[in-house]
């Protein structure tokens, strides 16, 4: 086969392969994307020429011809929140193993950013995984109708979802606090748009009613350490002796603020976090929290999305997967203060 000159400063194209083999560019395109449609001798010549010229398919051109991009969007509301580190690792590892590229987007806790990102990803990704979506049920359902989607920690009819079962762990947390003598407990709520926060409060109030103890909801608080100061002040003002907190970041901020105010944890106030993020076990005191299999949730979300993208691969499409959660008891909870 004669060597075909390709300028060193540019990658080979299907036109270079076509010139080398004496066939049309459309034949080269077919031989590389749907080889069964080209006779074996022509196909082998084209494949040999592609190797010789070190040809690499252009992903955008490939997307135009096949309708596939080989990329999956992963949307998280706050990339600095350690909860999402494990989720992102789980999605990344599972996507990489399946030959997909992960497109990671921080939606900044904004439904507008989330909606516009999804619209853009329809052109550049085959599907999307959305963690803790801030969109309304209607907007999320409409977006899922336009492209393959799996949500994490957001339950909407008709949209495949991975649910981390923190509501059941809130009942475990309440039982733990009752066993320590607490009868007045606050739930420190997360963002008003967070379905997880609403579901935890609902489960907690039902559990409290069944057990005959008082729980009250305080806030909505942004899921950041900085929110902990206002949450701690609200808890002290309310007179409760224990708090079950929307996430570990707020809980860690509360520990700092209570220390500043001269209050001891757990002697004066017990704190339970949620998520068991990196660092929860070496703050002061180490945080009692609800532990979730977060990386595994990311992997399961990818498996569910790939089943939508490759229905012929078998295995069936799951619409819902629930990940169990349990309470990890550390030093931030203790006996109720005796007044």
Describe this structure in words.
This protein has helices spanning 14-21, 25-33, 40-52, 59-66, 83-97, 111-124, 137-146, 166-179, 195-211, 228-238, 248-260, 294-309, and strands at residues 71-76, 101-106, 127-131, 149-152, 161-164, 184-188, 214-218, 242-245, 270-275, 288-291, 320-323, 326-328. The chain is built from 12 helices and 12 strands. Helix 1 crosses helix 2. It is α/β, with parallel strands linked by helices and 339 residues long. The longest helix has 17 residues, at 195-211. The strands form 2 sheets. The chain has a 6-stranded parallel sheet, with helices on both faces. The model has no long low-confidence stretch (mean pLDDT 91). It has 3 domains: 14-66, Orthogonal Bundle (434 Repressor (Amino-terminal Domain)), CATH 1.10.260; 71-164 and 294-323, Response regulator (Rossmann fold); 166-292, Rossmann fold, CATH 3.40.50.2300. The relative contact order is 0.12.
Strand order of the largest sheet: 2-1-3-4-5-11
Low-pLDDT regions? none
Count up the domains: 3
- Work out the radius of gyration: 26 Å
CATH topology heading of the largest domain: Rossmann fold
How large a portion of the residues is in β-strands, by DSSP E? 15-25%
Q: Helix amount, in percent? A: 40-55%
Which CATH top level class of the largest domain fits? Alpha Beta
SS class: alpha/beta
Fourth-tier CATH superfamily name of the largest domain: Response regulator
Average of pLDDT:
91
Coarse shape: elongated
- Per DSSP E runs of 2 or more residues, the count of β-strands stands at 12
Pfam family, one: Peripla_BP_3
Domain HTH lacI-type: 12-66
Protein name: LacI family DNA-binding transcriptional regulator
InterPro entries: HTH_LacI, LacI/GalR-like_sensor, Lambda_DNA-bd_dom_sf, Peripla_BP_I
């Amino acid at each position: 086969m004669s060597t075909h000159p390709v300028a060193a400063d540019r990658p080979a194209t299907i036109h270079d392969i076509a010139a080398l083999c004496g066939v049309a560019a459309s034949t080269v395109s077919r031989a590389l994307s749907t080889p069964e449609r080209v006779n074996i001798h022509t196909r082998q010549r084209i494949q040999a020429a592609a190797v010789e010229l070190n040809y690499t398919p252009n992903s955008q051109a490939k997307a135009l011809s096949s309708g596939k991009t080989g990329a999956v969007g992963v949307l998280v509301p706050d990339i600095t929140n350690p909860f999402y580190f494990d989720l992102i690792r789980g999605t990344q590892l599972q996507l990489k193993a399946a030959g997909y590229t992960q497109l990671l987007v921080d939606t900044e806790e904004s439904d507008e950013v989330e909606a516009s990102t999804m619209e853009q990803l329809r052109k550049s990704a085959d599907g999307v995984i959305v963690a803790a979506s801030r969109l309304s049920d209607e907007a999320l359902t409409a977006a899922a109708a336009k492209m393959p989607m799996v949500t994490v920690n957001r339950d909407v009819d008709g949209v495949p979802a991975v649910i981390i079962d923190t509501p059941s762990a809130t009942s475990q947390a309440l039982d733990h606090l009752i066993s320590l003598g607490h009868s007045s407990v606050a739930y420190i709520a997360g963002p008003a748009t967070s379905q997880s926060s609403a579901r935890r409060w609902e489960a907690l109030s039902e559990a409290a009613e069944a057990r005959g103890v008082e729980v009250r909801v305080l806030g909505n608080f942004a899921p950041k350490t900085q929110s902990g100061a206002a949450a701690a002040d609200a808890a002290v003002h309310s007179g409760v002796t224990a708090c079950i907190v929307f996430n570990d970041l707020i809980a860690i901020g509360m520990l700092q603020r209570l220390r500043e105010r001269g209050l001891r944890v757990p002697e004066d106030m017990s704190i339970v976090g949620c998520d068991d993020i990196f660092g929860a076990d070496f703050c002061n005191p180490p945080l009692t929290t609800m532990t979730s299999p977060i990386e595994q949730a990311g992997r399961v979300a990818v498996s569910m999305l790939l089943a939508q993208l490759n229905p012929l691969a078998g295995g069936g499409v799951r619409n819902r997967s629930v990940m169990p959660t349990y309470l990890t008891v550390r030093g931030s909870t203790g006996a109720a203060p005796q007044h």
